[in-house]
Design a protein that fits this description.
The chain is α+β, with helices and mostly antiparallel strands. Helices cover about 20% and strands about 10% of the residues. The strands form two sheets. A three-stranded antiparallel beta sheet has the order 2-3-5. A two-stranded antiparallel ribbon has the order 1-4. The termini are far apart. The mean pLDDT is about 90. Bound molecules: iron/sulfur cluster (2 copies). One of its GO terms (cellular component) is plasma membrane. It is found in: Cell membrane.
Length: about 200
């Protein structure tokens, strides 16, 4: 048989309970509001916030990614897919031997931990402050290389294009290439299906 609840002697008289309850309400009314009016008001993220990734370029526009797949191996969520390919003198995307021909990050899997950034040997992969990644489609959450590749700053020429004259791959990492060489023009991306005869854009 259940025991009778003991009298503590601390119960307030019935008419005081609502007063105590409204006391809490009134106190809360005058506290500083913590509600953020998102998305109308965007909050500034911390400088080292882990947001959407970016594939970076050298100062002349060639890509930093060498297609080594180290980022994919480092990823604990198996969110990165990379296919490397060989550069040629006629179609060059990065200063070295290889480049990232296919690059995808699946944001349905990514936990934005940054381990891929740590693994990248060329600083090709970094993270931006962009955090609005939600989407109703799984397919849209797989970002392609074209979406992740950084835009062109002033003076850059889009890849593929030839290496800076008189330099080698290491000179790019020594900081000796600071802009595109005068007269640098974009090469035809034959491997991507561009036709030189029709487009007429050759090196
Ligand atoms: S941030 Fe983390 S989870 Fe996302 S792709 Fe990089 S390693 Fe994978
Ligand atoms: S982003 Fe970096 S780690 Fe990943 S494939 Fe490219 S060079 Fe290698």
């Amino acid at each position: 048989m259940a025991e009778e609840p003991k009298e503590t002697g601390q119960t307030k008289p019935g008419f005081q309970n609502p007063v105590a309850g409204f006391g809490v309400t009134f106190k809360a009314m005058f506290k500083k509001r913590l509600t953020e009016q998102y998305p109308e008001q965007q909050k500034t993220t911390a400088p080292r916030f882990h947001g959407r990734h970016q594939l970076n370029r050298h100062p002349d526009g060639l890509e930093k990614c060498v297609g080594c797949e180290l980022c994919a191996w480092a990823c604990p969520a198996d969110a990165i897919y990379v296919e490397g390919a060989d550069n040629t003198d006629e179609e060059r995307y990065s200063p070295g031997e290889r480049y990232g021909a296919v690059y995808q990050i699946n944001y349905a899997r990514c936990i934005l931990c940054g381990l891929c950034i740590e693994a990248c040997p060329t600083r090709a992969l970094t993270m931006t402050n962009e955090f609005e990644l939600a989407d109703s489609s799984r397919a849209n959450l797989i970002y392609t290389k074209e979406q992740l590749l950084a835009g062109l700053d002033e003076g850059m020429v889009d890849s593929p294009h030839s290496i800076f004259p008189g330099t080698d791959e290491q000179d790019y990492y020594r900081g000796l290439v600071t802009e595109a060489a005068p007269g640098t023009v974009r090469q035809v991306a034959v491997s991507k299906g561009e036709k030189p005869e029709e487009e007429g854009v050759g090196a």
